[in-house]
Amino acid sequence: MSNVYVSLNGFAKEQVLKVFFKDFSWNAFKQLCLNFGKTEVPKLIRKEALQRILWHKTQGDRVIIVTASIEYYLQAFIREYEIEVIGTLLEVREGKLTGNFSSLNCYGPEKVDRIKSLIKLQEYDEVYCYGDSKGDKEMLALANFSFYKRFQ
User: Fold this and answer.
1) What are the per-10-residue average pLDDT scores of the chain (152 residues)?
2) Structural domain total, the chain
3) Cα–Cα 20 to 30 A to 116, which of 86, 128, 142, 150?
């Protein structure tokens, strides 16, 4: 049942992207995302979550935000805090967005697959995961320390 939901989740998101961004200039989109990342993302990040990110950074931890959102939205934020992001990727052809994903929607089991393709979890003594949606359930199961809706 959940795999069907994941597929519908991604399908719906892709359809919305097509309506708003099909044939949109990739360079213009990147600039919109950077502006959004500078002005709006800081308002969306919960204060307690940012404090926890900063705590992990002071511990020397590798910090990766794993999100079903379009990865590029977070570029300004991740650059400022020197963290990484795994998210849904967009297809670009000839300098324009197609409205399609170039990756699967980074939701549910796809989060686990994308994490495992980037990191060898067994190389880490401790793995912390924080999640706030049904799409985080599988990712939270990867961790030694998992927190669901900790910052709400």
Assistant:
1) 54 84 94 91 90 94 94 91 94 95 93 95 94 93 92 66
2) 1
3) 150
